[in-house]
């Protein structure tokens, strides 16, 4: 019964900002890394950012370094992705993910569209 609910997506102009949220339940949230992925039509899902279980370590894909920040709140079981200086190529459905017991779990995703 692991569940993720993503929200916060929308339509923004290039250079704009968004904050995505991922509400998690059904597992011990604070014991696992959380990841944000994105997927565009016809393309494979790609890893955007990872945060360690305590939030002390963070990794970012090269194409978002310096623009995106991943954050987690282990009290409220929420992970965030702050996105700045958005570009058209950031347009995708964004998903959060964890792997309790070695199995991947995904949310429904939230659409981000960057267009002028």
Summed up, what is this model?
The protein is mainly beta and 116 residues long. The protein is built from no helices and eleven strands. The mean pLDDT is 97.
Can you walk through the features of this model?
With 116 residues, this protein is mainly beta. It contains no helices and eleven strands. Strands 2, 4, 5, 6, 9, 10 and 11 form a seven-stranded mixed β-sheet that branches. The protein has a four-stranded antiparallel β-sheet with strand order 1-3-8-7, with no helix packed on it. The chain is globular, with a radius of gyration of 13 Å. The mean pLDDT is 97.
What is the β-strand count?
Answer: 11
Kindly state the mean pLDDT as a whole number? 97
H/E element string? EEEEEEEEEEE
**With helices defined by DSSP (H or I, 4 residues minimum), what is the helix count?**
0
The coarse silhouette is globular
Question: Could you list the spans in which at least 5 consecutive residues all have pLDDT below 50?
Answer: none
- Radius of gyration from CA coordinates: 13 Å
Q: Output the structural class.
A: mainly beta
Largest sheet: number of strands, sense, barrel closure: 7 strands, mixed
Q: Alpha-carbon distance between the termini?
A: 40 Å
Looking at how many chains there are and whether they match, the oligomeric state comes to single chain
């Amino acid at each position: 019964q692991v569940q993720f609910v993503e929200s916060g997506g929308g339509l923004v102009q290039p250079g704009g900002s968004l904050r995505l949220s991922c509400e998690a339940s059904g597992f011990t949230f604070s014991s696992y890394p959380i990841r944000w992925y994105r997927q565009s039509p016809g393309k494979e899902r790609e890893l955007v950012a990872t945060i360690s279980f305590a939030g002390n370590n963070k990794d970012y894909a090269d194409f978002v370094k310096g623009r995106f920040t991943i954050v987690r709140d282990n009290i409220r079981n929420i992970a965030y992705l702050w996105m700045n200086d958005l570009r058209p190529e950031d347009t995708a459905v964004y998903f959060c993910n964890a792997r309790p017991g070695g199995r991947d779990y995904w949310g429904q995703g939230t659409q981000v569209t960057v267009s002028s």
